Amino acid sequence: MNGPKYMTVKQALQHQIQTGKLRPGDKLPNEEELMKQFHVSGITIRKAMTELANEGAITRIKRKGSFVNGAQAADHSSHLIAFILSAEDNYDVSYMKIIKGAQQVAAEFNYSLIVEWSNENLAIEQSSIQKMLDRKVDGFLIYPFDPIQSKDNYLFIEQNNIPYLLVDRYNVDHPSYFSGCNNYDGAILATRELIRLKHTKIKFASYHFFLHSEQERFAGYCSAMRQAGLPVTDDNLLTRVDYVALADSILKRNVTALFCCNDKLAIEMIEKLTDRGVRIPQDVSIMGFDDWDHSGNLSIGLSTVRQDFEEIGRNAANLLHQVIQGKTHGGNTKILSGVSLVIRESTCENPYA
């Protein structure tokens, strides 16, 4: 241990590199681990690492760590972003649009986007994350099926000091970077339109109410209803739809409009209620949310709230790039894309008003 302590650390690491214990491309232990290994301060470790970097023995990459130089070292600056999608339907066009938007921006910043599908399975999601960590990606975009259940997977990424951003869905109790749409204002637009059409008996139908995005849409619906002086009770929220009972309520004029949390549910509503003799929109107006590509091509065109999926993808990649570059800090920045109302044949003025 003669000489400066930083020199002892430097020489020990040089020896590990020269003897092959640390090979080209290997990641060195982090600062805290080296402090424990050599029983020295952080200042000593940083000085040793700086000298090794200046001499070309290692490459230090912000937020990723230090790597041994050599034939494989270039892999660590390969500019990769992983997009993990825990999707219900891999062929949903909205996912494709988000990916397209993210790819456009990723390419502008010289990143390659790697897409991994985990199919609503937390174990597969974590396996995909580990696989991408092994490829030393610069950051993650994550579209979770259930952002609350995926919390441990976020913590796993955080432990590896890699930036990540959630897309479309987030966990309100676990702050994170996020890109999505303005669910609250979109729901207000939809509900006000139904009220403008003289509907007062409006119910909100949910699909996965554990998602904060659906809760935000319900909150917007409640706000618009109360602003119009219309009562809101537990009966206004449908979380499990009994189509026989719902059709009966509609034909008895106890329900004149339905605001569905997404187009998938709205299309199902139209099909199931039509099968039970309910006329759309004469007996009940139906409003969706998303504006799927085929929402306007149905036998009854769906009135809905349009969100720009490509913009959500572009915003996600832009924000993640800012985080990777160290230009955005705090871990709780959210970007919301705008929404607009699209009126088609599934809604009309209440004929019984």
From TrEMBL:
TM regions (residue ranges): none
UniProt-listed Gene3D superfamilies: 3.40.50.2300, Winged helix-like DNA-binding domain superfamily/Winged helix DNA-binding domain (1.10.10.10)
Keywords, sorted A to Z: DNA-binding, Transcription, Transcription regulation
Name of the protein: GntR family transcriptional regulator
Signal sequence, start to end: none
UniProt domain HTH gntR-type: residue ranges: 3-71
Pfam families: GntR, Peripla_BP_3
GO molecular function, one term: transcription cis-regulatory region binding
